[in-house]
Amino acid sequence: MRWENLTADPAGDPALDAALFGADAVTTRTFDTPEFRGVTFHEIRARSIVNRVPGASRMPFEWTVNPYRGCTHACVYCFARKTHSYLDLDTGLGFDSQIVVKVNAPDLLRRQLGSRRWHGEHIAMGTNVDCYQRAEGRYQLMPGIISALRDHANPFSILTKGTLILRDLELLKQASEVTDVGVSVSVGFTDPELWRTVEPGTPAPERRLDAVRVLTDHGIGCGVLMAPVIPFLGDDPAQLRATVRAIAASGATSVTPLVLHLRPGAREWFMAWLAHYHPHLVRRYERLYAEGSYAPKWYQRRITRQVHELAQEYGIGPSRAGMPRRITAAPEPAAPGPTQLTLL
User: What's the CA gap between 307 and 318, in Å, rounded?
Assistant: First the structure.
């Protein structure tokens, strides 16, 4: 494992970038508990925790904090898989089970926020791997991170699939009183069978939407990133409608669709998964993603239009952004017949 290659900017010149930590600062642990069986944790003391996003990135933010590397959520499409290759780690099962933990992240962040060189820019979290993955239940890094941001009144945002964020609800409320706090939960679909195979380590979509409901009920406006919309598996109009309706019922302040993109590292792992579970779709994916990592513009525009129309229908619109929403349950059919159970 090449710890010296874990730099602040993996896309940069390895000869010029200083390693974020030295190999002598690494402690490797395993825990014989059901939730961590088969997972190896590499505890490190990082030298830097606030990272600048490369200028060529499509991301709408400039600074990030990532207390973990690798993710037990095991989402087969995760674009961050490629980052494990910088350590000579496998981008498939290795990404899911070899987790780097920056154990000094809270203290290091507090020092960096207090530096005269830091000017209080927005910090995004959960943009590479999920900061509320299962490892956070053991290492509990986020309370210290949020506390540091709160104490310096530094604006920040969190994107997560983890319901563990509710543990830090009080800290989020305190931070929102002194600075801008943005919270988004990722729910790309509500199909239980698709969830079990494509996001096996995450809480179920309905549990994530329960978290959205709790956050909004406590005054923390929470949007939903409807990501990824998976072509031919989660993009049927009925599936899109069911997902948007469930998002609206959760009280989300907004819904933003994002079509699946397949970067190198993630692409190979996802296509292997597709060949195993849905071999009849392999050729269709090869054609759809023939030009690169992103689906064609016409397809992205179609999905965006459909989701926006559904969002407007269910009362999630930009004119009411920031306000919790509720929708009424669908009326019972007038004609007698068997009862259709619903999660809503």
Answer: 13
